[in-house]
Amino acid sequence: MADRYPDTPGAKGPDGTSQDAAEAIAPCVSYLRRIAMRALDGLGEATVLEAVAFAEVARESLQPRFSELRAMGLVEPTGARRRNPSGKGAAVLRLTEKGRAAL
Q1: What is the pTM for the complete model shown?
Q2: Residue 101 burial (10 A CB sphere; 0-12, 13-18, 19+)
Q3: pLDDT tens digit at each of 103 positions of the chain
Q4: CATH classification number, 2-102, choose in 1.10.10.10, 3.30.1700.10, 3.40.109.10, 3.50.30.20
C-alpha cells in the first residue's frame, strides 16, 4: 500500500493493524480530503487541529488526510506556526493554487 501513497491511505508498522485501518478508511478518503480542503478554504489558513474543529469531523479520520494533501501538492505550509491546545507548535497550512482548482 505504501507504494501507492498518497493516492491511497498510508500504513505503518508490520503488525497489520495500521494496514487494516488504511484499508477500512480507503472508501471514504476522497470525501474526507474534500472536507479537509473545504475547511482550509473556509478558514483561509489553519493548523490541522483548527481545521478539524471547523469541519467537526473526528481528528483520527481527518488529520492523516492533511499529510496526503500535502504530498499531493494541494495543501502547503505557510511558514507560520501556532500553538495547539497541548502547547506544542503546529504548522499553519493553506490551499495551494492546485488545491483551490481541485475544489
Answers
A1: 0.84
A2: exposed
A3: 456 777 677 667 677 787 777 777 677 889 999 999 999 999 999 999 999 999 999 999 999 999 999 999 999 999 999 998 889 999 999 999 999 999 9
A4: 1.10.10.10
